[in-house]
């Protein structure tokens, strides 16, 4: 008769070794530059950057200003708000006065085209977008001065549908912002880099999506994704259905992480996790293998402190530390000292929220609540 406990231990070792192996691969891949050979555009084409806005944070001016500081000959920036009284309007007006030589346009339009307010904003903004090459970027993104040129370059190859890029979370002061940035830097982006290393390209990120207008028109424009929660992912998916490739650029941008409380952190991460679960349900179920410290620690408990389990855990601790130092360029806490002590807490929180994300399909996006259907459509939920 098979020893049930022995079977559990053997299965546990298989899972623990898989989690340890992933940690090692992730620690390696974040140090490896993203390599691709894009076709250079024959010229530096004119570009429209679309910046949908909603509200203003202390870093909003600096983030938007970084797009005005581009070393690129001819580009337009279209800022969009759904409320003319939005505080972001004053920031855009300040930039318009500081950069009179730039083509900076503001669209303030309340009209909604679907349940996704950001995409409705983009639809309204397209009325003043002049150029064939488009870049869509979230409001909390900060870039270097060569951003446009490097992001647009792969679109010189007509077989490319979209270009997207990784981003690094930059936290404000405070534990919750730092934990939020660690979710991006220590788990989300390493998982993308590992997937890219293995040849997967089923992703697109709101931090940057570059696309030709003709391709956007071919998939039905922004109207095709106006009811989708994961609008950025769906944009990439629809272009891949045309037989076009997704390119992960070697450009890395920064996104500001501004979680003020544990409630903000949990609400934001649950929305992300439920989105990922909806997009890739099978892969998400097994994503616990990317949570090395909790998984290998459980194996120690399962085997009652067996030496091999401790060895696996030790290697995982080392690789998690190397991963943290490999991505830890964010401030203010940096990659050393007190922040290193947050790594095990971050992994435990990660494991707990992974389990919680299976409990409901309801998400919160800013002040609005939605129910997510199996096909990714969001339906507003009335608040009681």
Concise structural overview:
By secondary structure, the chain is an alpha/beta fold. Helices cover 45% and strands 17% of the residues. It has 13 helices and eleven strands.
Structural notes for this entry:
It is a single chain. The chain has 384 residues and is an alpha/beta fold. The protein has 13 helices and eleven strands. The chain has helices spanning 4-29, 60-68, 88-98, 117-125, 147-152, 175-197, 213-218, 231-241, 262-279, 281-285, 292-302, 307-327, 342-356; strands at residues 47-52, 75-81, 103-108, 133-136, 141-142, 160-171, 209-212, 245-257, 362-365, 368-372, 378-380. The strands form two sheets. Strands 3-2-1-4-7-6-8-5 form an eight-stranded mixed beta sheet, sandwiched between helices. Strand 2 (75-81), helix 3 (88-98) and strand 3 (103-108) form a beta-alpha-beta unit. Helix 1 (4-29) packs parallel to helix 12 (307-327), helix 2 (60-68) runs parallel beside helix 3 (88-98) and helix 11 packs antiparallel against helix 12 (307-327). The longest helix is centred in the N-terminal third of the chain and has 26 residues, at 4-29. It is elongated, with a radius of gyration of 22 Å.
Contiguous low-pLDDT stretches (5 residues minimum) are 330-334
Helical segment count: 13
Structural class: alpha/beta
Overall pLDDT metric:
86
Widest beta sheet: strand line-up: 3-2-1-4-7-6-8-5
Rg from alpha-carbon coordinates: 22 Å
Give the helix level as a range of percent: 40-55%
Percent range for β-strand residues: 15-25%
Shape: elongated
Distance between the termini: 56 Å
Number of strands: 11
How would a textbook summarize the main sheet? 8 strands, mixed
Order of helices and strands: HEHEHEHEEHEHEHHEHHHHHEEE
């Amino acid at each position: 008769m098979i020893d049930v406990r022995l079977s559990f231990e053997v299965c546990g070792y298989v899972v623990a070794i898989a989690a340890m192996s992933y940690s090692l691969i992730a620690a390696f891949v974040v140090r490896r530059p993203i390599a691709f050979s894009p076709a250079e555009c024959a010229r530096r084409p004119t570009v429209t950057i679309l910046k949908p806005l909603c509200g203003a944070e202390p870093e909003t001016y600096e983030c938007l200003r970084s797009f005005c500081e581009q070393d690129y000959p001819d580009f337009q920036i279209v800022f969009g708000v759904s409320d003319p009284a939005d505080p972001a309007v004053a920031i855009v007006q300040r930039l318009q006065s500081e950069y009179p030589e730039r083509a900076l346009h503001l669209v303030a339009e309340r009209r909604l085209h679907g349940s996704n307010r950001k995409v409705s904003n983009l639809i309204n903004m397209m009325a003043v977008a002049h150029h064939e090459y488009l870049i869509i970027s979230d409001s909390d993104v900060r870039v270097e001065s060569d951003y446009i040129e490097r992001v647009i370059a792969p679109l010189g190859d007509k077989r490319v549908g979209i270009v997207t890029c990784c981003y690094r979370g930059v936290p404000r002061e405070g534990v919750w912002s730092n934990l939020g940035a660690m979710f991006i830097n220590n788990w989300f982006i390493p998982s993308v880099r590992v997937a890219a290393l293995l040849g997967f390209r089923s992703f697109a990120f709101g931090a940057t999506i570059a696309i030709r207008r003709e391709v956007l028109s071919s998939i039905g424009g922004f109207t095709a994704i106006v009811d989708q929660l994961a609008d950025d992912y769906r944009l990439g998916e629809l272009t891949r259905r045309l037989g076009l490739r997704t390119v992960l650029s070697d450009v890395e941008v920064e996104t500001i992480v501004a979680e003020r409380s544990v409630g903000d952190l949990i609400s934001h991460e649950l929305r992300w996790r439920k989105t990922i679960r909806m997009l890739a349900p099978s892969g998400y179920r097994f994503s616990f293998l990317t949570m090395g410290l909790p998984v290998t620690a459980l194996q120690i408990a399962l085997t009652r402190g067996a030496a091999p389990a401790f060895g696996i855990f030790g290697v995982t601790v080392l690789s998690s530390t190397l991963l943290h130092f490999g991505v830890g360029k964010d401030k203010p806490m940096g990659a050393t000292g007190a922040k290193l002590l947050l790594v095990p807490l971050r992994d435990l929180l990660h494991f707990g929220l992974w389990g919680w994300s299976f409990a409901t399909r309801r998400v919160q996006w800013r002040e609005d609540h939605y129910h997510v259907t199996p096909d990714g459509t969001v339906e507003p939920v009335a608040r009681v």
